[in-house]
Amino acid sequence: MSEPSHFTLFGLAERFALDAQALDAAWRRLQTAVHPDRHAGGSDGERRLALQRATQVNEAYRVLRDPQRRGAYLCERAGVPLQAESNTAMPAAFLMQQMAWREALEDARAARDTAALAGLRDEISSTRSAGIQTIGTLLDERHDPVGAAAELRQLMFIDRLLEEIDLAEDALAGI
């Protein structure tokens, strides 16, 4: 018998677009029910099962609350794994944009220009938001997990670049 999907576990429709408040409420309800402390007086088997169930609930919540992980999960459920490690092919326009962003990041770092870093963050964050919307459209409306997987791989690069901006800002702030 296979485990229920993460969406089924929380009583949500299996879609990329989801109601974050409904997810949070369902997680809190499930956490209360399966928390290991509630089963502290049970047998070893009951305590072990409660711990496994709590772990399953927490992992499902982590996946569903993060757009990148949620999209990857939906693609995998549709039989289209991301293969991010082996499939690094990207559209030429995206590669050129990424090179320009990286150059702007290095220039801002070298100049210790926090305003330039903030501007770059805004631009990349805007692109990220548009990518998340595209992923939602591809999965929920067009039922195109292959296209969504390609967008998700690009989103992974964008997220890494945003992390690098965080690090650069922290370094300039002396953190």
Largest sheet: none
CATH level 3 topology of the largest domain:
Monooxygenase
Name the overall outline: globular
Q: Give unreliable regions as ranges.
A: none
How would you describe the overall organization of this protein?
There is one protein chain. This protein is mostly helical and 175 residues long. It has two domains: 6-65, Orthogonal Bundle (Helix Hairpins), CATH 1.10.287.110; 92-173, HscB, C-terminal domain (Monooxygenase). Helix content is 74%, strand content 0%. The chain is built from seven helices and no strands. The N and C termini lie far apart (50 Å). 22% of the residues are buried. The mean pLDDT is 94.
In short:
This protein is mostly helical and 175 residues long. It is 74% helix and 0% strand.
What's the topology here?
Blueprint: H1 6-10, H2 20-34, H3 44-65, H4 67-77, H5 92-111, H6 114-141, H7 145-173
Helix pairs in contact: 2-3, 3-4, 4-6, 4-7, 5-6, 5-7, 6-7
Give descriptors for this structure.
single chain, 175 residues, mainly alpha, Helix Hairpins, Monooxygenase, 2 domains, 0% strand, globular
